[in-house]
Write a structure and sequence with these properties.
GO terms for molecular function: DNA binding. With about 120 residues, this protein is α+β, with helices and mostly antiparallel strands. About 40% of the residues lie in helices and about 30% in strands. It folds into 2 domains: about 5-65, no CATH class; about 75-110, no CATH class. Helix 2 (about 75-85) packs antiparallel against helix 3.
Amino acid sequence: MWGKIGFNKQRGLYYVSGKWQGKRQYYSQCPTHNGLIPCGTRRIAERLQESISIDIENGQFSPEKYKASKPLHLENYIEKWLALKKPELSEATDYDYSNSLNRHVKPVLGDNTYRT
């Protein structure tokens, strides 16, 4: 079994810790068919430990699977998306996209954050 199970008194959650690629890692979110759930009980932490162990055995372990995604600020996403798409677009289309997003989308939705 990979890692050890511990309890964080401040957060009131169990976690699984162990070394992955030479660095100590801590996981306190267990993947389910409904997304990640916090390890509120030892039983859930044991399931998490088992899931990580199976993924490592099968060569499919990815730390991102066990970490909650950070909220995405829409304004930042728009800027990154425009920069990524720019080489594929004609000058007129690039201008139209930039103008539409900057004048209509950003003022209304740009300050919102979303989970990816």
